Amino acid sequence: xxALANQLPIGLSIAAVLLLIALGLTFTFGxxxxxxxxxxxxxxxxxxxxxxxxxxxxxxxxxVALPVAFAVAGLLGLLLEWSLIRxxxxxxxxxxxxxxxxxxxxxxxxxxxxxxxxxxxxxxAWLVGGVDVLGVRLPHNRVFxxxxxxxxxxxxxxxxxxxxxxxxxxxxxxxxxxxxCSGIATGRVDRSTFLLGSGLAGVAGVALTxxxxxxxxxxxxxxxxxxLVVVAGGLGRLRGAVLAALALGFLNGYLEFWxxxxxAKVLVFVAVIAFLQIRPQGxxxxxxxxxx
Amino acid sequence: xxxxxxxxxxxxxxxxxxxxxxxxxxxxxxxYLCFAIVAVGIALAWGRGGxxxxxxxxxxxLGGYAMGMHLKLxxxxxxxxxxxxxxxxxxxxxALWKPSANxxxxxxxxxxxPGLVAFLLGLLVFRQRVRGAYxxxxxxxxxxAFVILLVGRQGLTGGTNxxxxxxxxxxxxxxxxxxxxxxxxxxxxxxxxxxxxxKLVVRSRFGALLVAVRDHEDRVRFLGYDPALVxxxxxxxxAVVAGLAGALFVPVVGIISPALLGVVPSLELLVGVAxxxxxxxxxxxxxxxxxxxxxxxxxxxxxxxxxxLQGGLFVLVLVFAPRGLAGVVEAAxxxxxxxxxEEVAG
Amino acid sequence: MNPVLEVRGLRVVFDGFAxxxxxxxxxxxxxxxxxxxxxxxxxxxxxxxxTGLTRPAAGSVRFDGVELVGLREHRVVRLGVGRxxxxxxxxxxxxxxxxxxxxAGFRLPLRSLLRRRRGISDEVAAALETAGLTALADRxxxxxxxxxxxWLEIGMLLVQRPRLLxxxxxxxxxxxxxxxxxxxxLERIARTHTVVVVEHDMEFLRRYAREVTVLHxxxxxxxxxxxxxxxxxxxxxxxxxxxxxEAVT
Lengths: 292, 346, 249
Ligand SMILES: Nc1ncnc2c1ncn2[C@@H]1O[C@H](COP(=O)(O)OP(=O)(O)O)[C@@H](O)[C@H]1O
Ligand SMILES: [Mg+2]
Hints:
Chain C: Residues 5-242 form the ABC transporter domain. Chain C: One of its GO terms (molecular function) is ATP binding. Chain C: InterPro entries: AAA+_ATPase, ABC_AA/LPS_Transport, ABC_transporter-like_ATP-bd, ABC_transptr_urea_ATP-bd_UrtD, BCA_ABC_TP_C, P-loop_NTPase. The structure holds 3 protein chains of 3 kinds. By secondary structure, chain A is mainly α. In chain A, 73% of the residues lie in helices and 3% in strands. Chain A is built from 11 helices and 2 strands. Chain A has helices spanning 2-32, 39-56, 61-83, 92-114, 140-162, 164-174, 176-181, 186-208, 218-233, 238-258, 261-278, and strands at 130-133, 136-139. In chain A, helix 3 runs antiparallel to helix 8 (186-208) and helix 5 packs antiparallel against helix 8. Chain A is globular and about 55 Å long. Residues 288-292 of chain A have low confidence and may be disordered. In chain B, 74% of the residues lie in helices and 2% in strands. Chain B contains 14 helices and 4 strands. Chain B has a two-stranded antiparallel ribbon with strand order 1-4. Residues 341-346 of chain B have low confidence and may be disordered. The interface between A and B is large, with 45 and 44 residues. The complex binds adenosine-5'-diphosphate and magnesium ion (MG).
């Protein structure tokens, strides 16, 4: 029973990381139909940013790394959107392959710059160890990651609901043509979405340095699961992404605990397929009229 | 007609290769041909059917393991156990391996197993009208899960090392250049037959139906067809083709392992198809051979360069020639042909 | 005469908005029925429900006594109900003949589908003739004009030999000449088929309609002959009473 409860913070932090990664994906996918396989490399960029800052700043570099990684990954995303993806709107499958090509190049670039072996980021002292709450062991780093993700979701939620940019973004997600007709500069909205989504991936990368080493393949490890979150959650929906990330995070965590890591992945896949039999549009669906 | 001439030319080239290539180079060519077989299936599913499958490695692997398990059992030691099981302390042959001892079962499994898995997945996914990028993502997740499963079940699958150390392929001695030449011939024949079979499908009514489903799935329903079934059948066919290629890969290269089947290798299978042209079967075959040849060249002297080249190729092809080299050739030919007439009609 | 189509108490709700609200409709064998009503009246939605594209919240659709609600689209087609779309949808990369051949082949078993088409079947040739597309038979359907696409769609419908045809605004966006031809086509088809036509165009209606059903805000407002419907003050108010320009387009 105690072991079961101890699995809780682990499941929660897996969910938190998945969510940070999936947020950007679900909006770029939902809004622009772009399946960005290079998203994983923005995670890697964020993680390496934390690694570099550790050398430069030392001590409390983690707190500096969060905004810097957001900016670096975000700008990289912006660059990708502006230079390549822009030409591919309306061709989702082609963007998938295109961005995979970009991701290969970025990975090799990281290998050439930082070397193939993994590097380590040392967590600040206040994130080492944990506390016991009602007999459940809560490691500080896991709690921090969960809180970070919660904060980001809150931020994105407020952005979508309150800020004019966020409202424009929701409008474009729901109906691009109509939004364009109502005078929204959809190109600009697309770029800000890309900036935001890629930036969050960078933040996820910083978070990941707290639970494991950093290597050129860091992104590939998470991207598939993050895409499953997008599929299960429903396109471009914040609520869907949160629900799906929680479901998949816990499912992953507990299945690994009950069976083992190798079977868990297969079972999660089966679970997603089974879920799609009940709700093919994902947990939270956008409705529209098909065929006219 | 020019298509038929080029086909004959290619068959002649394939037939002459063993006479001019060293056994080592011939082995490499046979490997490329295996990937070319997969490419034919991908061109069918992706180019004709619009189903971007990022999990072809799974079906390649199912075919490969089905074949590898049988070959391993033929060479098994005194306890009837494959070598890797002895090393990892397995004492009795797992139930999953038992049927593989039967050659008929093994050969059937090579195509039935991948076909069945793809059919099941396709039915579940396409009936729910999950398609496009969603399908691509799901097929990729399948590849990820499959590899993790293979690696994790060391005693059953040989883990990361996979199945290797094959010295015989049925009656053929794989250590002997003569035996390897026969394996090459079988592979080349398999490629030609697969190509012809898929070509027939593409030209049939079913081929037209497939294009219709690709371009306007919702409309096809109102012609009284079930698009989910059309897609499922096609997807399964492409899986069968991949399984066949995987099975041949085992005697050709002498190994089948998870490193060949995961997310990245599955995507790599697409590079050649994209380069050659997904809408053209011949283009896909040529692209697959060319890309794998380039990979060999680069990995020999400049391994880091390969990833840049591969990534760069994807980007360049998609930006400048989304229909691949076949598309470029076609456009040039059309322009050449169109000049005299055309304006009259329309 | 036998009713071919019996729609009873049909209700369709989109996000709380009732697009159809208790619609009854009976179409007899061999009838040519016009379905009119202002934009948003629910005409297309009605066809969508009959053909399985949209699930109703309540009500039933019987075709020859068989319940259609709950069947998937291709099953409905296989029972003998065919439809066209407001914006004609044809397969642009396939040739005109292949479009028709595909439509005609929907009862073929997989085994025959896997064979190549040899020549042009009589049925397809006849449909080419009827649709006036014989000269364009081998061109990709993508090159067809808007009017030609509508005719191709109707041709695709005819080769399927449906017992009931549902045409959604077949003359919308057509030139005067094209309307004439479509009207002629419609008359010929109606001689041998049961047809329901959704149409806005008043001139077209006066010329070709016999029985008319008027939909308004998801309900049946009136049913009767063209003259009866035109004289009904309620119909005038919701439909004909508007500015003439609006009614005609
Ligand atoms: N999928 C849908 N979601 C929401 N509203 C819809 C949908 N389909 C139709 N409607 C609404 O239902 C009403 C009837 O539409 P429709 O049947 O297309 O009218 P008509 O064909 O008579 O012009 C319209 O108000 C339309 O906006
Ligand atoms: Mg309408």
